[in-house]
Every structure is written in structure tokens, then in C-alpha cells.
């Protein structure tokens, strides 16, 4: 079953993020920071997440971000004390992450130099045991419908150029590689997929 992300599900989503994505957040501290991020998305006016439940266990999720400034503002306004605490702890665990954390949360980096405007898929994750079941496609379908329901004509995403499995999935589901960009020393492909029809949301989205 596909449904919207709730606060109760954020811890499992953070766990799936760390287990399945290339990430600078590690261990318990990293999971706490991701928990703050996804909890913020639940009530954000700039993002939306959907989760996939299989027999009472969340085995996948997908997020869409269309107003990064609103998402960051929510983090700073409502969660700054906790974010500061876990951010400091993350620096102890992984000191080199300080530059990226400053860029992400304080916006010292000129994001407009590399970030496209529009509706961004970020990220999509399916647990190892649920791969090959069509779950990722179901999650993506919900996200595409949601993007169309709030007025967007396409969805875009960034994918590491050497992440062949992810790139194959995106191409199989209708995304086209449009260009490449260097971000933080990593080469990314930018994929886009047009929304052909604006259908009603597949699940209640609150929009």
C-alpha cells in the first residue's frame, strides 16, 4: 500500500536512507539528522514523501521537492536546536562533512549555479527484499501524479553518473538524460520526465 509519509514512519525512512543510498550521514548520529529532515518534510509546504507498506513494514519511499527554500526554512525554524546538536555530533563522527553541512543548511553555496528549478525527485529507495516487485515503479507513479496535480509538467532528478542500476531504472521508466553537472567534486547526470496527463492523486496528499 502506498500512502503519505507520517511522523511515525520517519525513523524507518531514515534507516532505509542510510542502508541503501550513498550518503555522508553514518551510524546513529546520521540517522538522527535524517530523522529531523524527513520529519520536517511531513508538514513542509515545499516537499512531499510517499511510503510503501508491505505487510505492516515500510519497505520503500520516494520524495519530491519543489521548494528547497521552504524545506530549509522549516528545518531552521522548527528544528534548529536539535539540528545543531546532531550536526555537531556528526562532525565528530565524520569531520570532513562540515563543509557539506554548512552548504546544505546555511546556504553558503550559490545553489543557483547547479540546481534546477521545478519538481525534483529526491530520493527513491526500495529495500533489498522488495526489489524486483514493482514497488519502485508504484512509488514513482504516485510522485509523478502528485507533481502533475500541483501544476508541474515534468519531474527531474540528479543521479551519480556511475550509479548504473539507478540510471537503468530511470531510463526504463521514461526519464531522459538531459545533461551533466559537477557538484561537490561528483559528476551527476540530470534526468527529466514529462508528465503527459494531470491525473487526480493516487492517494490523499493534503494538497
Describe this structure in words.
42% of the residues lie in helices and 25% in strands. The protein has 207 residues and is an alpha+beta fold. It has a single domain, classed as Gcn5-related N-acetyltransferase (GNAT) (Aminopeptidase), CATH 3.40.630.30. The longest helix is centred in the middle third of the chain and has 26 residues. A seven-stranded mixed sheet has the order 1-2-3-4-5-7-6, with helices on both faces. A hairpin with a 2-residue loop joins strand 6 and strand 7.
> Would you give the CATH topology?
Aminopeptidase
Question: What is the beta-strand fraction?
Answer: 25-35%
Radius of gyration, taken over Cα atoms and rounded to an integer in Å = 16 Å
Under CATH at level 1, the class stands as Alpha Beta
The class by helix and strand makeup works out as: alpha+beta
Stretches where pLDDT is under 50 for at least 5 consecutive residues are 105-114
Q: Which architecture would the CATH scheme give at its second level? A: 3-Layer(aba) Sandwich
Query: Approximately how much helix is present in the residues?
Result: 40-55%
Total count of strands: 7
**Strand line-up of the largest beta sheet:** 1-2-3-4-5-7-6
Total separate domains: 1
Oligomer: single chain
Fourth CATH level, the homologous superfamily: Gcn5-related N-acetyltransferase (GNAT)
Question: What's the number of helices?
Answer: 6
Bulk shape:
globular
Summarize the biggest pleated sheet. 7 strands, mixed
| End-to-end C-alpha gap | 20 Å
Average pLDDT works out at 82
Order of helices and strands: EHHEEHHEHEHEE
Amino acid at each position: 500500500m502506498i500512502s503519505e509519509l507520517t511522523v511515525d514512519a520517519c525513523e524507518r525512512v531514515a534507516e532505509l536512507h542510510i542502508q541503501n543510498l550513498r550518503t555522508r550521514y553514518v551510524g546513529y548520529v546520521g540517522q538522527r539528522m535524517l530523522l529531523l529532515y524527513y520529519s520536517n518534510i511531513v508538514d513542509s509546504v515545499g516537499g512531499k514523501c510517499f511510503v510503501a507498506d508491505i505487510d505492516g513494514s515500510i519497505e520503500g519511499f520516494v520524495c519530491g521537492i519543489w521548494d528547497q527554500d521552504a524545506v530549509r526554512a522549516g528545518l531552521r525554524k522548527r528544528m534548529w536546536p536539535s539540528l545543531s546538536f546532531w550536526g555537531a555530533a556528526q562532525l565528530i563522527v565524520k569531520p570532513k562533512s562540515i563543509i557539506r553541512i554548512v552548504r546544505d543548511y546555511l546556504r553558503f553555496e550559490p545553489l543557483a549555479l547547479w540546481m534546477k528549478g521545478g519538481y525534483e525527485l529526491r530520493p527513491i529507495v526500495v529495500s533489498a527484499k522488495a526489489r524486483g516487485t514493482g514497488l519502485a515503479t508504484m512509488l514513482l507513479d504516485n510522485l509523478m501524479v502528485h507533481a502533475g496535480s500541483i501544476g508541474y509538467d515534468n519531474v527531474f532528478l540528479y543521479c551519480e553518473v556511475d550509479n548504473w542500476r539507478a540510471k537503468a531504472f530511470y531510463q526504463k521508466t521514461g526519464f531522459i538524460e538531459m545533461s551533466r553537472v559537477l557538484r561537490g567534486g561528483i559528476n551527476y547526470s540530470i534526468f527529466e520526465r514529462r508528465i503527459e496527463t494531470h491525473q487526480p492523486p493516487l492517494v490523499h496528499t493534503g494538497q
